[in-house]
Amino acid sequence: MNLKILILPGDGIGAEVTSAAVDVLRAVAKKFGHTLELSEGLIGGVAIHKTGTPLPQDTLDKALAADATLMGAVGLPEFDNAPPGKRPEKGLLGIRAALDVFANLRPVRTYPELIDSSPLKNHIVDGTDMIIVRELTAGLYYGQPRGIENDRAFNTMSYTRAEIERVTHTAFKLARNRRKLVTSVDKSNVLEVSQFWRKVVIEVAAQYPDVKLEHILVDNAAMQMVLRPTQFDVMLTENTFGDILSDIGGILAGSIGMLPSASLGEKKGLYEPVHGSAPDIAGQNKANPLGAIGSMAAMLEYTFDLVNEANAVNAAIGKVLASGRVTADLKPKGTPATTDQVGRAVSEAL
Ligand code: IPM
Ligand code: MG
What is the rounded distance in angstroms from the CA atom of residue 276 to the CA atom of residue 257? Predict the structure, then answer.
């Protein structure tokens, strides 16, 4: 198969982790006999520095031409006080919207080898295997009107029926192949958007009688995730809640550097580790590349339907974890491995 992939390293540790993921991708292509057609583009702060905009047209064109895009991270401290349109994050929001990738899948599982890396007690995190389905192209992130006036600032949380329905279908289809439980997260005791969200989710759920639906308020969901994470299978939620709750997933998985994600739409796939650009450790060959490598595995599975290849990468990640050669964030017993070394170890384990 010919895999046409755009690589967007972005800011901070994005370059290091995507480069490790591309090395693993090359190893997969070699082992399974696929050809790679890779291109690279600019996004985020580095794109602002080089072109004046966080999402140059060239990047959009390349993303639309590719089968899938692997993104590293966006965000640089020097833009902290920049106006909304000149922020690195705007590039990421722009490409998510342009590719119409409305369903962001964020699997969170505890590998037995990493159980001591989590600050939570072992018996709490042991056996965690959930997937957060975060709506990605609507809600507060995109709602209009928005703005800052003299003595007031405002954002709009808005969802249409169609926006809720399509991501709900994604969640239920996933649950069918898992433990058949969807937990929808909202704030329906206060927000109209959440009341509507809950109503539409219940309607869609009727088409999936084999899957159980539960509802939970977002504040309680945050608590339950650290209290008894094993109760969750598929967690369905809107954009902002999903952003917040998925960082808790990092605590369950041992490190946010472990978490992969897949953003899916009808046509395109955008794959991005959940972690940010971590400017404090950028350029030091310290960052954990497993979130990016796992995102690449998700790309093989969801965009290219190469399930054996994806399984092989995930098994190789497991072997590397078992070997203990991991980056500093996972608190290894000996000297921490570098980003490169972890990438090479995954390729070798393949
Ligand atoms: C994430 C990130 C992004 C988001 C930022 C970088 C815009 O936090 O993917 O979770 O909020 O969606
Ligand atoms: Mg986030």
Answer: 9
